[in-house]
Amino acid sequence: MFLEDCKILENYQVSENYYLMKIESNKASQHSKAGQFFMLKVKNEIRILRRPISLHFVDKDKNILEFYYEVKGGGTKEFTDLEAGEIMNIQGPLGKGFKTDVLDKKCVVIGGGMGIAPTKLLINDLKKNNEVIFIAGGRDKNAIEILKNLDLEGVKTYITTDDGSAGEKGNVISALCKVLEENKIDMIQTCGPHKMMEAVAKKAQEAEVFCEISLEEKMACGVKACVGCSIKTLDGMKKVCHDGPVFDSKIIVDVNPKENLGCNCN
Ligand SMILES: Cc1cc2nc3c(=O)[nH]c(=O)nc-3n(C[C@H](O)[C@H](O)[C@H](O)COP(=O)(O)OP(=O)(O)OC[C@H]3O[C@@H](n4cnc5c(N)ncnc54)[C@H](O)[C@@H]3O)c2cc1C
Ligand code: FES
């Protein structure tokens, strides 16, 4: 884990409330993997707590880290004011990322909404030695505009939006059902809204497929020094910032979806 002052190379609006920031990092970039996150320092000292943001992509040859973020409150709003040439202090990489040391597997990667953030690097790493199927979903076309920034060559991709403004009208679960029906899948990895991941985990368990989910909890320290991100699992209490954010879905207690997510493949 590094504390590093990094030069901002680019910071631009992708669509609506969604932004992409590229920064130069000589140290952290060399040790980062898909699914890990960084605590980004907000300039205004009134906001003492850093903001946890997933690693979107890393270019290890050029020492560039990418972060894809959505404006939620004051901290992320401040990020949008940062300009190329300014300095951002980062802490990371933090947490446990996705499993990528697999060979000749058929992998499904599912990103929902902001959960698309870690999928760029994940897909990039998996597709070197495996077949990857990608399912991406969002509220509307603005929420999936970021897909233009992903290298999806050779990746069979399904896109869904709630309002049908891009891809198929519907949600990622319907697409997952179709993929599970038509393929023998070895591994599913997902990041997105909690309800969506519960439904994915349930489908994976039914199909007896190994599944990893990336959880999001409010974080104060990001380095297991407080109890802000503690969760109950079937394997005892875990800290999302240290033991996760990526977990084997089997140890997460609440994998029973309480809402019907529109999947009719049961
Ligand atoms: C492991 C992890 C990875 C994340 N990756 C991304 C990402 O790639 N892109 C992205 O846009 N967002 C991501 N988030 C969510 C992001 O951290 C919050 O949206 C952001 O902290 C909100 O800060 P704010 O000041 O804009 O909002 P405010 O609501 O003003 O935040 C107030 C406080 O709550 C904390 N907080 C608020 N919402 C969250 C949340 N959902 N998760 C954790 N802390 C929160 C903030 O750190 C801050 O301390 C991630 C969260 C986690 C835990
Ligand atoms: S955020 Fe402090 S222990 Fe995880």
Give the spatial strand order of the biggest sheet: 4-3-7-1-2-6-5
**Count of helical regions:** 5
Number of strands: 16
Helix content: 10-25%
Distance between the termini: 44 Å
Q: Give helix and strand order, one letter per element, not per position.
A: EEEEEEHEEHEEEHEHEEEHE
Shape: globular
Largest beta sheet, briefly? Answer: 7 strands, antiparallel
User: Cofactors and ligands present?
Assistant: flavin-adenine dinucleotide, FE2/S2 (inorganic) cluster
Look at the structure and give the mean pLDDT: 94
Point out poorly predicted stretches.
Answer: none
Strand percent estimate? 25-35%
Radius of gyration: 18 Å
Structural class of the helices, strands and pairings? alpha/beta
Any overview of this molecule?
This protein has 266 residues and is of the alpha/beta class. It contains 5 helices and 16 strands. The chain has a 7-stranded antiparallel beta sheet. It starts with a strand and ends in an 18-residue tail after the last strand. The model has no long low-confidence stretch (mean pLDDT 94). The structure holds flavin-adenine dinucleotide and FE2/S2 (inorganic) cluster (FES). Flavin-adenine dinucleotide is lined by residues 37, 49, 51-54, 68-70, 72-76, 114, 117, 216-219, 245.
List keywords for this structure.
about 270 residues; alpha/beta; 7-stranded antiparallel β-sheet; 7-stranded mixed β-sheet; 5 helices; 16 strands; about 15% helix; about 35% strand; globular; binds flavin-adenine dinucleotide; binds FE2/S2 (inorganic) cluster
